[in-house]
Every structure is written in structure tokens, then in C-alpha cells.
Records
---
Amino acid sequence: MPRILIAGCGYVGQATADLFHAAGWDAEGWTASAKSAATLSVKPYPICQVDISDSDQVAERRRTFDVVVHCASSRGGEFESYRQIYLNGVRNLLDRFVETKMLFTSSTSVYAQRDGSWVTEESETKPARDTGRVLLETEKAMLDRGGTVARLSGIYGPGRSALLSKFLAGTAIIDPESDRFVNQVHRDDIASALFLLVTGELQERQIYNVVDNQPMLQSDCYRWLAQRLNRPLPPFRELTGQRKRGDTNKRVSNAKLRSLGWTLQYPTFAEGMEKSILPGLSEFDVPLSPKC
Ligand SMILES: NC(=O)c1ccc[n+]([C@@H]2O[C@H](COP(=O)([O-])OP(=O)(O)OC[C@H]3O[C@@H](n4cnc5c(N)ncnc54)[C@H](OP(=O)(O)O)[C@@H]3O)[C@@H](O)[C@H]2O)c1
């Protein structure tokens, strides 16, 4: 039975570990905290508390794996936590699991284009923030050692959608002057992409964008939600400050991954919302704004 370690068994990590387990793999998940490990103890595979940024803790682990996926997240965080969790985490895993197939879940935030253009894995990467530069350095460490990089776009899925949460909380605004494309992907499609990359033969030292088929203007997402939920459109107002300056505007292509045979269960935001998110709307812990 092939063995896989999911280092960072959070929102995406769990879905991925579940998928591999269901496919007959011997999966193991790691979390940073004892609390998360305890919560996940109901899983039909072992969950261990291991801090991947601590080289001693990683080096002490005795089990070996055929595949290791770095799926840990700094949950936003600042430069130092990026450095610890991504760069040091990946280096520690590479040092401990030599000659093991490795995959790093990075982010499409490494693309800084602002002109709405399409970007592929070949496009320029010039992240605006130093946290993005840490991701690039981590990608390089992974690629140099023969690993694979999956650049994930904005994750949504059951109980999680930044756009829907803002819409429901009444904090969304539409600024036509700084409207931009958003690139999203459903959690379960990420898991199937990682499964394809791990089980395929072609992916060493390669980068793949993991994003759905249809980038959407942010305002169109809100329009779709307003119409579907029969609620008012967010107010039109000028976006100010950091957000206005910091946001990128690009359309991320998934053609490379699809050319390997990746098919999406939720190819568009509308399909993901209809089939997966809206049926569980009560999972979104925000007050509903008044109906039209
Ligand atoms: N959110 C997005 O839209 C987005 C977009 C692009 C890329 N990504 C990337 O996608 C990946 C998965 O994100 P996610 O949303 O599934 O993350 P998540 O739900 O926040 O889960 C993160 C997991 O990593 C664990 N972790 C954190 N620090 C660790 C450490 N030092 N050692 C071991 N485990 C550690 C956490 O454990 P605890 O629960 O104990 O803290 C948790 O299990 C990350 O690489 C993230 O950067 C996310």
C-alpha cells in the first residue's frame, strides 16, 4: 500500500488525505497543534502533532513515505511565519525525506500582474509583498530537489468562501474603478488535482496552476450572489488604502493541468456555489443581511 504524508492537515489537507485514504493509500496527517490533532483523531488514518518548522521534530520521525505533500498554512501571517512554515518547513521535509516524491502547495499570489492579462506557469512572477517572495524561494527549494509545485488560487468550499462571507456580512463593496478578476478553486478539485499530480508520471520539477476554468470579475461574483440569493447588491463605493494598491488583477490559466487530464467537479464559481456551497449555507457563521 503506498504511503503518503500530508504535512499540514487543514482544510485542503484533510480533503486530500481523505481522497488518498479512500483510494487505498496509507495516509498520515500532521498538524501544528495538539488541539487540531485531537479534533482529527476521528479520522480513519493517523494524525500526529509535528511542527514542520522545527528540524528536530521532523528529523525524529521514523516512518517513511512514498509521497510527502506540504499543505501547511501560515493562515495569513507575516513574513516570519511564512519563512518558518513554508521555507523552513519545506527544507526540513526535504532533508528528512530524501528520495521521496515531494509536492508543495504554493499560491497564485506569486503572480503580480495588474492588467487583467492571462497568466500561465511561464508568466513573470514578481510578488508585490515579501511574503510572496518567501513562497517563490520555497518553490525554488522544492523544484531544485526534484519536487513539484501546485500554485493554488483562492480556495472555497463547504463552510469557506471569502466572497460569500463578505457578501453575507454586508462588508462587500463594488468599486468599478478597481474591479478585478478573482481566481478561485473548490477544495475538492484541489484534492483531485493533487491526486493526479501524485499518481501521474510527468510532474517532477514542474509547476502547475490549480484554478477553476473561469476567472470572474469580483463585481460579477457579487452580482451572481445577489441575484441567486435575492439580496441587494453590495454598495458602490471607492476602495481606499492598502487593498486598492495591493490587489493584483490577472486571469490564471489551468490549461497545463487540464492537459494532464484534470477534470473539475466544479469548473465555475456558479457551479461550485449551486452544487456544494449554497446547500450548506447555514455553515457560514454570519448574520444574513436583510432581503430586498
Ligand atoms: N486560503 C487560500 O485561499 C489559499 C490560496 C492559495 C494557496 N493556499 C495554500 O494552500 C495550502 C492549504 O491551505 P489551507 O487553507 O488548507 O490551510 P489551513 O486550513 O489553514 O490548514 C493549515 C494546516 O497546516 C497546519 N500547520 C500550520 N503550521 C504548521 C506547522 N508549523 N507544522 C505542521 N503543521 C502546520 C495546521 O495545523 P493547526 O490546525 O494545528 O494549526 C493545519 O492543519 C497552504 O499552503 C496555503 O498557503 C491557500
Note: The two ends are 55 Å apart (CA to CA).
---
Amino acid sequence: MAPQETVILRLRSVGMRYAAGSEVLHDIDLTLKAASFHFLVGPSGAGKTSLLRVISLSAPISRGSITLFGRDIARIDEIERARLRRRIGVVFQDFRLLDHLTAFDNVALPLRINRVEEETVARLVSDLMGWIGLGDLTELPPPRLSTGECQLVAIARAVITRPRLLLADEPLSNLDTRRAERLMYLFTALNRQGTAVLLATHSNDLLQRYRFPVLEMTEGRLNSGTLSCPLAAAD
Ligand SMILES: Nc1ncnc2c1ncn2[C@@H]1O[C@H](COP(=O)(O)OP(=O)(O)OP(=O)(O)O)[C@@H](O)[C@H]1O
Ligand SMILES: [Mg+2]
């Protein structure tokens, strides 16, 4: 089977609720293949972040099933879950950086968890942060960075391991146009090298400029099928 045909994620009839609240995701069916790229759109409160949490195994589902990298997540132990999670890069909508670490150490964290040797960590992190434009800020902790700079650190941390699956929750929302374009270049380059990307966005501009298929959510449901960009026909 060609690598692009490999299914890396399958959700079947997934429902999800927060604690004792009512269900916020309903009957989600979703299949993602290796090296695919999808935008995830929908109004605020539609469930995009909740869906990304479920996929990254950071929130439990209340019904249905998830198969991630060929493993049914209901049938694996904590060690295996942690192993699968390490293959996913996540850019959280609220960044979730560690304030007591420097920007450098935040980005280095996933490599160190993977026990990459320090010399390699130093090289990979410096190269990436330099390319992204954070080269002068490596020693500062997140509270001393601007919101956009924190977003860049969060992106760098998510991609530093070249994950097989990248989940990016409005990753460009605080960036200027030039930076956003540079980061889209990074995402598409990773994607060409085999990373599947699922990118939640409110930006019609992004949908228009990059013609990746669009998954649309409304009120906790994933509308079946993918839309090609609805705006694409307008130009
Ligand atoms: N931690 C939480 N506890 C309880 N309910 C939550 C929590 N987070 C989100 N929700 C609810 O889940 C629903 C989906 O929210 P979610 O954050 O997934 O939407 P979203 O599509 O990501 O929105 P946005 O575009 O504003 O980021 C909303 O009704 C929201 O109120
Ligand atoms: Mg959200």
C-alpha cells in the first residue's frame, strides 16, 4: 500500500462530553490518511477544539471508537497511549507553554521526552527557532514574550519532532501576514514529507489561498464529506 493510502486515524460514531455536561460532539465519523492535509472550520462553539482534544487523546470519548496509528485506543494501556501521543504534534489554541521554562526549553521538551541527545536537541531547536524568527528570544520565558511570539513557540514545539500527525488549533491567529505565510510554508513542507495535518481555522483567506479539503463542523457534528473551498469558485 502506498504510504499516502495508510489510514492513520479513524473515528466511528464518536460522542464526547465534558465531565457531567451534555454531549458536545455527536456521532463523529472521520478518517485521516497519512500525508493528508485538511482544514477544520465551523463557527465558535461548533466543537473544533473538542474534536482535536479527542484525537490527541487529551479528552476521553463517551461513546464510539478511535483507531489511531492502527491501534484501538480502548484496548491499550497508559504506556502505549503515551507512545501514540508522542507521534502527534499539537498546537493548542491557548498555547499551553510552560511558563517556568525558557522558550528554547519549551521547544526542546518533546525531543528530550524522546531521549534525543542534547547536542542534537541544541542543533534542531536553534535551527528551527532561528528559521521561525525566534532566534533572539530563546532564553526568555513565555510570560516575557508577545502573544504572537508565544504562538510561534507553541508551533515550534509541535513540529520539532516531525510528528506523523499535526493538530493545529488556529495556529496562525495571532501572527502577521508574513509570519503566517512562513508558517504555512513550514506546515506544507512537513506535509509533503509525510505528516498528516489537521488545521482548525476561522480564516477564509487561508481556505482561499491553500486549496486543501475542508472539514466543516456545526453544533458538534462533522458534516459528512469534505468541501473543496466554497470560496475557490469565486476567483
Ligand atoms: N472545558 C470545557 N468544559 C465544558 N464545556 C466546554 C469546555 N470546552 C468547551 N466546551 C463546550 O464545548 C462546545 C464546543 O467548544 P469548542 O471549544 O470545541 O468549540 P470551537 O469550535 O473550538 O470554538 P472556537 O472557534 O471558539 O475555538 C461549546 O459549547 C463549549 O461551550
Ligand atoms: Mg476552538
Note: The chain has two domains: 1-87+163-172+194-235, 94-162.
